[in-house]
Amino acid sequence: MHNLAIALHSKGYKVTGSDDEVYEPSKSRLKKYDLLPEKMGWDNTRVDIEIDAVIVGMHAREDNDELIKAQDLGLPIYSYPEFIYEQTKNKCRVVIGGSHGKTSITSMILHVMQYNNVDVDYMVGAQLDGFECMVKLTENNSVAILEGDEYLSSPIDRRPKFHLYNPDIAVISGIAWDHINVFPTFSNYVEQFEIFASKIATNGSLIYCDDDDEVRNIAERARSDIRKIPYSTHEHFIEAGLTCLKTDVGDVSLSIFGEHNLQNLNCARMVCNELGISDDQFYIAIGSFQGASKRLELVRQTNGALMYKDFAHSPSKLMATTTALKRQFPERELIACMELHTFSSLNIEFLQQYQGAMGNADRALIYYDPKVIEHKELSPISKEEVADAFATSNVEVYTESNSIIDELRKLKWTGKNLLMMSSGNFNGVDFLKLAEELL
Fold first, then answer.
1. In the CATH scheme, what is the code of domain 297-438?
2. Confidence tier at 292 by pLDDT (50, 70, 90)
3. pTM for this structure?
4. CA separation, residue 259 to residues 84, 266, 278, 323 (Å)
């Protein structure tokens, strides 16, 4: 939401906003553009008939005073994705959907476009080097690159966000059940991607991962008036801890690694081809791509050890990220730490989906906070139930973040790599300080 506020301010709109709390880095960025509210909290006197549009974020509730007044005044009210669509409806919209990889794919496309001096509108859910604001909306650009999240649009609009973008070019990178509080069955979750595919414009394109059976089935059932473009893992090799692409223009060294990222990269290449970027232009650009924030992001490196952090929290993401780091450095012991933090991951029924997800780590340290379970009003889970769900002998379970950090402090790190995975922060751990201390 703060990126959207800055983007609209940059476009010349008068932007105001409210929240009950604004955290960093949003706070500093809003302050820089003089967009930070003078005081926190909700105040319906801020809402009047002069407002042209109200954009409702997921943090506001249905009974929010400002929202109720906007409804009473009959003001145009948009969810975030609705407003993004309104701003891009006359452009070619590229929407990157999928349970995993969508942020990385979107970031790769933007990197290649910027490298080749192709100006596009965009919206992506992670910070990217070379981009100050992760939303850009202009009058003149003809293409918009949008990350298509399947979560709900707003408290008063229960449709998945990516159903509202109506893509000209759509991507489905993979399907792995998530958000069980919204999509209670796997078939219900898969249905959302079928609907997404049905929204592709006539004569549009669907770029899909051919290695995913569910995605391939959706593509096969999709309308016949769209182009269907499959992709899989790009041909590559690993040498001395470095991943290189095999291409017609020679070997291309990468800063990123992991089979999932090689899939993401090939998808980004297909999208760029559709937008007029040649393979030669793509390969020259992608070699300098450093990765998106919190996606296998290097925290610290020494001669004998590395620490990475990753946003991974779902079973498929854990497996992909853990496997990637172990394969990249097979001679090093991998200590992988993961925080169960989301509604799905802390649900005893969904927990069974994690079977084998961290089997490729030498040690897998799992942390969860029973207070978070209580706050989410879920049934309690025990350490034994968590260990049984992951179902590999390398798993150790902790319920206090200090305990898991203390365990890491006991280790000698030469010849070891550390991977920290969570959509949270292990109850306030500063990853950079931890890396400096351990390594």
1. 3.90.190.20
2. confident
3. 0.84
4. 32, 11, 23, 8
